[in-house]
Design goal:
Helices cover 53% and strands 14% of the residues. The protein has helices at 13-24, 39-49, 57-60, 76-83, 102-109, 140-151, 164-173, 175-192, 197-217, 222-228, 235-245, 248-270, and strands spanning 6-9, 32-35, 52-54, 66-69, 92-95, 113-118, 128-134, 154-158.
Length: 272
């Protein structure tokens, strides 16, 4: 596949992580450009990645094959309405803004090839995971372009239905915060058991990291891994039974349902 020319509209943290991932994969700086209203951010992006930057969005997207919309959801409508007259029929739109549906983007931009994505914050370390959905106008080549773009910062998974973006938001988009909450709770509990706070924090962090790496590398699912480390009548079983007796699985389900419901609500509000 010929390297596409990619323009980022908005050069915040997520855009910077994608640009960094692309550059790390060997994509030439000349194939990437970005626009941002902030002079300081433009200067930083230029210094970090040696790409051309622009104050005006319309200047950045000229001749681009892929236009990445990476502005805040609250200003997406305004940005799209301003961009619409400058976008060509063959340009692919990739939106990484939460809560903005393909229908809303088509309403503001006109009928276009659009891929909607939900990356998560570990993308900043190129350890992210993204759910992708493309509308019917996305060609096979454009599908490859979008997948290559998001793969620069982690795993990219395609969805058959756009409404599943809400589920992706609940599981992985918001998911890092759930694990941070568990890390907080385990660190605090370890401290109450008598460990120095720094020791409790390091034990918790590296246990989380090790468990995640084991799960990713394993050829069995998480439930089997859990069974393998849970000896009958042992310490792990005592903890697991306490979690389950207090409705741990049901609470997780309720939390994810709440996140998915809120994602759908935001899409309706932001798309007006």
């Amino acid at each position: 596949m010929t390297t596409p020319r990619i323009a980022f509209v908005g050069a915040g943290n997520m855009a910077a992580s994608l640009i960094g991932g692309l550059r790390a994969q060997g994509i030439e700086a000349s194939a990437i450009r970005a626009s941002d209203r902030g002079a300081e951010q433009r200067s930083k992006i230029n210094a970090d990645f040696a790409i051309a930057t622009f104050e005006h969005n319309a200047d950045a997207i000229k001749d681009a094959d892929v236009i990445v919309l990476s502005v805040k959801p609250q200003v997406m409508k305004e940005v799209c309405l301003d961009l619409a007259p400058h976008i060509g029929e063959q340009q692919l739109i990739v939106s990484i803004a939460a809560g903005i549906s393909c229908a809303s983007l088509e309403n503001w931009l006109g009928p276009r090839a659009i891929v909607r994505c939900m990356p998560n914050t570990p993308a900043l370390l190129r350890q992210g995971v993204s759910g992708l959905f493309g509308n019917t106008q996305v060609s096979p080549t454009q599908r490859e372009q979008a997948e290559h773009l998001l793969s620069a910062v982690g795993l990219a998974l395609w969805l058959d239905k756009e409404e599943l973006i809400d589920a992706v938001t609940a599981v992985s988009g918001s998911g890092p915060a759930y694990f941070f909450l568990l890390i907080e709770a385990m660190t605090a509990a370890g401290e109450k058991l008598g460990l120095p706070r720094e020791t409790a924090a390091q034990l918790t962090l590296h246990t989380a990291l090790g468990a995640a790496r084991m799960a990713v590398a394993s050829d069995v699912d998480a439930s089997e891994l859990r069974r393998r480390v849970t000896s009958p009548a042992g310490t792990t079983e005592a903890a697991i039974k306490t979690f389950q007796a207090n409705g741990f699985e049901a609470l997780v389900e309720q939390a994810l349902n709440a996140a998915a419901h809120r994602s759908a609500e935001l899409a309706e509000q932001l798309g007006q």
